[in-house]
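Fold this complex.
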Amino acid sequence: MDSVLEVQALTKHYPDVKAVDGVSFSIPEGICFGLLGPNGAGKTTCIEMMEGITKPTSGTILYRGKPLDRAYSQKVGIQFQHTALQDYLTVKECLKLFASFYEHHVDTDELIALCALDEFINRDNRKLSGGQKQRLLLAIALVNDPDLLFLDEPTTGLDPQARHNFWKLVDRIKAQGKSIVLTTHYMDEAETLCDDIVIMDKGQVMVRGTPDSLLEQNFSSAMIRLPQSSGIQALSNFPYEVIQFQDKYEFSVDHVDRAIATLIAENIPLEGLNIEKPNLEDLFLKLTGHSLRA
Amino acid sequence: MLNFQRFWALLYARNLEFVRDRASLSWNLLFPVLLIAGFAVVFSEENKTLYKMGVYGETPQEWQSLKHVSVVTYDDIEDGLGQIKRHQLDVFVAPETAEYWINPHAPNGYIMEKVLLGMTPNVINQWQRKEVEGQALRYVDWVLPGILGMNMMFSCLFGVGYVIVRYRKNGVLKRLKATPLMAYEFLSAQVISRLMLTLSVSALLFIACDWLFNFFMLGSYWLLLLVGMLGATSMISLGLLVASRTRSEELAGGLLNIVSWPMMFLSEVWFSLEGAPEWLTAFSQVFPLTHMIQAARDIMINGAGFIDLLWPLSMMIGMTLIFLCAGGYWFRWDQD
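Structure:
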């Protein structure tokens, strides 16, 4: 599969911090690519360099094999993490304004239907709810019919229903064959939307792959969690590696039945026991020793 | 090349913002009318306590120590005669040629004539008395161009400078930067939009004030419009320069105040700098508002023509070019 975007040895240094420190990866055409990491990992700086908004300190970014040029902004759509629009403009006026900036733009009625904007199309953009605002910003990002779409933490601050509605919308855009670069610190969002992910921490790439393959490589089939009061940490010959996770202890196992039999044999109380499938949050904890939301 | 589709779309959006911001629009219209009305009431009665004498050429030493008489020196005889005409001087004297001018309709002129003759008993028969007639200039006639100019100044500086900094702070500029829009397209739309709005509001105020106070207007309305356009453009450009990379509204507010307050006091908005120290008068020439107000007064009160206004017009054009070039060079979309 051809790469729509390729990042080579990308760095961004500020006087007091290396926000991005030698990052390299390529993004195949037509997939949803996730850039994951905790706050301050360098995701936003990285995506803003890929968007052409921030100049890298060093490194190369290639769009379809060529360095970014002025025409690049005609071909990409961007939804920022925090953004405001001009005051007093209605949703429709915002769409028309942004459409006028591009040589080619899609029919605004199509966008209104795609992003379900019709119920508040004549409302002042400042009076929209969080979910409505994100849908408008997504519509603006799509106004030029881009073949590469950047979404920087698009569902941060939304309620669960608004997030699920947004995910459905992203699915519809994926179905149109567009390539998407998504940053998030919600692991369920990444697992639902992303075909391929990179996990970043402290400005560097820690791991890259599909969510399933990464979990398969790093975990057994299930995670068992017990409260601290169970006393599991005091066992000296316990056959599984136990680590602390928030206020609990956990270990991963291939065979749940055997693990439970061992716990019973060791007289560990099963009260408060949890059995879960490992997720990207667990992966991040394993890789870095700290939580993604930290 | 300027892309007109983008330019018009931004211009239209900015105008919508202004027109829909009712509170700010009402304030822009109401504030100067209230101010002018207030001044008209306060200064409706002649409450000068000083007599004013104009002197062409060297002023005799003993005249300078006269109590309750302010003595102003003129280098151009026409300026002094214009002031007599508008009752702004009580007497105008040219000691070298032993001539003096008074306005027969000005009560203070009669008194100052007696004072002048009383001060010079030895040469009393040598004085040539001349009369200049003209309608009295009320303070409201004099102050109106100043207040309209001041209103334009605040509208231009804060309406552009403050808005751009707010756009930068809340991410609007960053969002625009992510589109193919060029900085000069955005800045041109801001300048033209503010120019249109400022001139429209000022024209409405001009008409309303004329209806209320029936003030002086001796010159050309087209020339006055040209002065308004150049003055507003130079101050909008100054606003752009201040906002070119300022990140916080507080800093922008402070910088705009630093620029606007000296202009308000030194650009002859409220009072004339006639008789002020020379260095202060010279310093006031660095402000675009000074040139705009002086030119507007010259047109309205003295009926000045295009040629008479070459200096203030060129100064406003020069300042616009300097501010625009510097503002465009320094401009940054976002906070990095």
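Chain A has two domains: 3-215, 220-277.
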